[in-house]
Design goal:
about 50% helix, Rossmann fold, single chain, globular
């Protein structure tokens, strides 16, 4: 069983990608289930097989603790740890090869709260991989792309498990712009040149400093362009996970 966690900033397309990848897996004849870890999600584009909302309801938390939606999200993130054992039991009751996790919209609630790491460890860090989502709107500028690289690096440091960068909603980008972003992911010199091509600002100087730090960490990494709308890139996600855990071998189909 491989655990695939989609992590990214609010609006980056985690839920859409969860539904699209699960649908692709099923169309290919592979076994996969979905797990929703966001108690605040509404109108999810898929029906979760396991849903944190069965245990944690934001409205109940708001009423009980007298907090607003944001405060309830923080409390809910910490409460996640209390339900992991029962959730684990239900997940393991499925005969499936892939478990696809849709993490909370506010990324820091999963990445920075202790419950996120605890969940990954309890469900098996040795069989887990993270798909980090690069929002195409943010990625279009050098400064925006570097900010996402910094977030990606912090997620890698936090969880220390196999990692895949994913450029979501790539169908919204013109071909030239998409290729530019993909090139930045593997050629940090091209990314630095793009910063220098802009009008010098304090922000650009910060970007160069951050990029220098990322270079020293060897942070360049090829990212996979995907489109949840058209289903492109799903095979690349699958192949990457298979390469990490199965040496590239296909799963047994139904």
């Amino acid at each position: 069983m491989i655990n695939l966690y989609f992590i990214g900033s609010a609006g980056s397309g985690k839920s859409s990608l969860t539904g699209a990848f699960a649908g692709w897996m099923q169309n290919q004849g592979y076994n996969a289930i979905t797990v929703n870890l966001d108690p605040g999600i509404e109108n999810a584009p898929y029906v979760p097989d396991v849903d944190i909302r069965d245990w944690i309801k934001l409205r109940d938390i708001m009423q009980e603790h007298g907090v607003g939606p944001n405060g309830a999200q923080i409390i809910a993130a910490d409460m996640l740890a209390l339900n992991i054992n029962e959730m684990k039991e239900i997940i393991e009751s499925y005969e499936t090869e892939y478990v696809i996790f849709d993490t909370p919209g506010q990324m820091e609630l999963f990445v920075l709260r202790q419950s996120g790491k605890y969940l990954i460890d309890e469900l098996g860090a040795d069989k887990s991989i993270i798909g980090f989502l690069y929002d195409p709107v943010i990625s279009k500028t050098p400064a925006g792309f570097i900010s996402l690289m910094l977030q990606a690096a912090s997620v890698q440091v936090r969880f220390n498990i196999p990692f895949l960068g994913v450029l979501t909603k790539s169908d919204l980008l013109p071909d030239e712009e998409r290729e530019k972003i993909l090139n930045w992911s593997t050629d940090l010199m091209a990314l630095e040149d793009a910063i220098h091509d802009e009008r010098p600002t304090f922000s650009s100087q910060l970007s160069i400093g951050f990029l220098s730090a990322l270079k020293s960490l060897g942070a360049s990494q090829k990212i996979v362009p995907v489109s949840s709308k058209y289903g492109s890139g799903m095979e690349d996600i699958y192949n990457t996970a298979q390469q990490v855990f199965c040496g590239g071998e296909d799963l047994s189909k139904d």
